[in-house]
Amino acid sequence: MNAHFLDYYLVLRLRHGDRDRAADVEAIVVERFTRHHDFSTTGLDSASWTPSGVGWWSSAALSRTMRLDPDLLARVVPAARSSAESAYRRLGGGQLPTEAVLRTYFQDHQPFATAAPLRLGPAHPPAGFHERRVYRVLFAKDLRADQVAGLRASWRTPSGDTTGSAASGHLEKDGDRITWELRRVGHTLAWGLDVTVLLRTGAAEVVGPTLSGLTNVLRQHGLVPVSTERFS
Questions:
Q1: With contact defined as beta carbons under 8 Å apart, do 162 and 97 qualify?
Q2: Among the residues of the chain, which ranges form H helices?
Q3: How many CA atoms lie within 13 Å of 109's alpha carbon, on the beta-carbon side?
């Protein structure tokens, strides 16, 4: 996923535990994470629309509640823009505004507390690399066993993986090496994607697209991203 694209969510009219994905859409939420130059998150912008409302409105409190309230979280479904367009049109909104227009509705910014990266792992990169970075992308919601199996197959997780992760993968590009592990965190209340980046080249262009791409894969599996932190 391009880092400049927006994230879309459909909020369904569902009771907690109801799995009827054909239920009516109650609201559409559009979000964008703001980021440091190293791609860790600094905050979150959002805008929402309901068919009974008076147009688009912005609420940092809603974005927080989407990730913290179990009943609301159960009704939040990550969606592609095409799905948001269909829902918006079906609910009488007409043509969904362009992303440039949607960004103008971001009025209530939610800042994240920031600090210098914590040190996780060795202080120096392995021989042949000039920098080592470790990121954790935190997610709300849960994954079914078949979704985890699908991720393992897609990422080609070795069957004898002994890292303790639910799924893992790796990528090498122009000499840079990136590995990632998906695991439960916070006493199994959330999921964390731990991404280790070893940079051989002088540039770090591979980091942003890779973090965004992995995050989008997990959004497509139903998880809701919370933040991206850097640990080294």
A1: no
A2: 60-68, 70-73, 81-90, 99-103, 145-155, 207-220
A3: 11
82: phi > 0 → left, psi -120 to 50 → alpha, else beta; which? alpha
Mean pLDDT across 39-68: 92
- Please tell me which of 8-17, 25-34, 48-57, 195-204 the model is most confident about, judged by mean pLDDT: 25-34
pLDDT at 21 over 90: no
Q: What SS3 string covers 3-52?
A: CCCCEEEEEECCCCCCCCCCCCEEEEEEEEEEECCCCCEEEEEEEEECCC
* Residue 58 neighbours by CB distance under 10 Å: 17
Q: Return the DSSP state at 221.
A: T
Q: ∠ CA(179), CA(8), CA(184), 5° rounding?
A: 40
Radius of gyration of the chain (CA): 19
- pTM value is 0.88
Rounded distance, CA 91 to CA 28, Å? 10
Number of other residues whose CB lies within 10 A of the CB of residue 174 = 10
Q: Compute how many other C-beta atoms are within 10 angstroms of the C-beta atom of residue 223.
A: 23
CA distances from 142 to 42, 189, 212 (A): 24, 8, 19
Residue 122: per-residue pLDDT: 65
In this predicted structure, what is the pLDDT of residue 2? Answer: 39
Q: How far is Cα 196 from Cα 175, in angstroms, rounded to an integer?
A: 14
